[in-house]
Amino acid sequence: MLLKKISGLLLGAVSIATVATAVHAADAVIPEQPVETGFNWSGFYVGLGGGFGANVPKLSTALVPGGSFDGIGAEGLFGEVTVGYDYMVSPRFLVGAFADAHYGNIETTLDIPALPLNVDVTDKYGFDVGLRLGYLVTPTTLGYVLGGYAWQKAELDAGGLGGEFDWDRDGYFLGVGMESVITGNWTLKTEYRFTQFSSFNALEEFGAPPGFLDSASSSHTFHVAANYRFGAENGGGSSFEVPLYNWTGFYAGGALGAGAVVHELNSNIAPGGITFNGLGGEGVFGELSLGYDHDFGNWVGGIMVDGRYSGISTELNTGAFGAGTFSIDADYGFDVIARAGMKLNDGTLAYALAGYSWQHFDLDASSVGFTHDWDSHGFSVGGGLETAVNEHVTVNLEYRYSQFDSEDFSSLLSAPPGSLESEASFHTVRLGAKYKFN
Predict the structure, then answer these.
(1) Residue 204 DSSP code
(2) 37: closest CA among 180, 143, 138, 178?
(3) Is 240 within the bounds of a domain?
(4) 33 lies in some domain
(5) Looking at the predicted structure, is the pLDDT value of residue 256 above 90?
(6) Phi and psi (nearest 5°) for 369?
(7) With CB atoms 3.0 to 4.6 Å apart as the test, which of 20, 57, 291, 316 could cross-link to 304 if both were Cys?
C-alpha cells in the first residue's frame, strides 16, 4: 500500500511538469547561446503538495543509567499547504520566510492478534515556520537551504487496552531544496528536511515521573509541491546567460545523502502472528555513480549504476546493565536504476526513477557472542530535480524509497522457519553533482 501511494505521488509530480510544458513544447526554439527572460521570484506565494518519510524516536530511561535505544521506526505519507514570501537581495540571491501545515500518517505499529493487541503511534498533524536562503542557478531554477521551528501532534491508539492518548512536541528543522519554474506563475519544489524534536516524558499520561521513559525523535522527510507565485510574470526578475545543455552523454557523479531505515519484524510464534513495524535507524552516506542519458527533445531517458557506503544504523546501548552495545548497520550497497524525465526548461529536468537495489546488513551483538551479516535484494522508486550549472556539470536533489526482501533469523535462534523475520525499507535523499563527458 505504501509503495502504491509513493508511486502515485511521484507520478503526479512529474505529470504536473508534463501537462504544464506540453502546451508550448512544439514551438520551443533553442538558440545557440540562450538568454532566459526574467522570472520575478520576489513576492508572496502559496503551495500545495505532500511527501513521505520516516521517524526515529530515541528512548532512554533513568532505570538504566547510560542506556538508550535508537530506535523505534515509523514511516508514511503526509499532505501539506504552504504560504511564504521571498525577496531578491541581488540578481542571484534570495531570502524568504514561510509557514506550512501538514497532516499525515507516519506511524509505528505493533499487532498481536492473539491477545488481542494493536498499538499505533502516529504523527497526525503539525506545522513548520522557517527561513530560507536561495541562489539562482538559472533565472528559472533556484537552489536553497532552509531552517526553522517545528511543532508536531502525535497520537497513540492502544486497541485492546482501551486507551487513546495524544501529545505534542517541538524542535527545529534544517534542509535543502530545489525549485524550478513550470510555466506562468507556477513552480515545482522538491525539498529534504531533517527535524530534531526535544525530549519528552513518553509515559506522562500514565503518571510516570520525568525520566522514567523519555523519547527524543528525529525525522527525515521529502517534500514535493507546486507553488503559485503572485506577480511572477510582471517583470523585474533576473536575466542572465545560461549554458546550452545537451543531456545526451555518459557521466560520472557523486552524492552525499541522509535518511532512515525501518525494519518490520514478523513472527509466527503466537497464533495469528506478531507484527512490529518497526525498528528504526538513521544516518548519512556517500555515493558514486556512472550513467548514460539520452536527450529525446523534451524528454530525457537514462540508466545509472551507483555504489554507496552508509552510516545508517540502529543501536541499543544497555548502559549500566553491562551487556554492551547492539547494532544493525546498513553499511554498503548498490543500485541499477533507470529514469525518465521531462524538461522544465532547457537546463532543468524533473524525473522519476525505478530499478534494482542490493544492500548489505551487519548485526553486531559481539558483547554477548553473537554476530550476523546478510545481503538482501530489492527495488527502489523515486524522483527529483536536476539542473545544469555549466555545459558539463549538473546538480540534483533526489528522493528514493527502497524495499528489500525479508531475512529469516529462525535458524540462528534454533527455531522453526518463520519464527522471526525482518524486512527493511529505506527513505533516503541525496544531494549530488554529475560531470558529463561529451
Answers:
(1) G
(2) 138
(3) yes
(4) no
(5) yes
(6) 75, 30
(7) 291
What is the grid cell recorded at 75? Answer: 514511516
Q: Where are the beta strands (DSSP E) in 230-347?
A: 249-267, 274-295, 299-317, 325-345
C-alpha cell at 139: 533565472
In a domain? residue 37: no
Q: Which residues of 159-188 are buried (b: 16+ CB within 10 A; e: fewer)?
A: eeeeeeeeeebebebebbbbbbbbbebbbb
Helix (H) / strand (E) containing 12: helix 2-25
Cα of first residue to Cα of last residue in the chain, in angstroms, is 42
- Report pLDDT digits (tens) over 6-63: 444 444 443 433 333 333 333 333 344 444 557 899 999 999 999 999 999 998 888 7
Beta strand 274-295 with 407-408: parallel, antiparallel or unpaired? unpaired
Rounded to 5°, the CA angle 252-254-256 comes to 165
At 434, which helix (H) or strand (E)? strand 421-436
Name residue 115's amino acid.
Answer: L
Range of the domain at 56: 2-28+42-436
Domain count, the chain: 1
Whether 52 maps to a domain, the answer reads yes
Tens digits of residue pLDDT in 369-409: 788 999 999 999 999 999 999 999 999 999 999 999 999 99
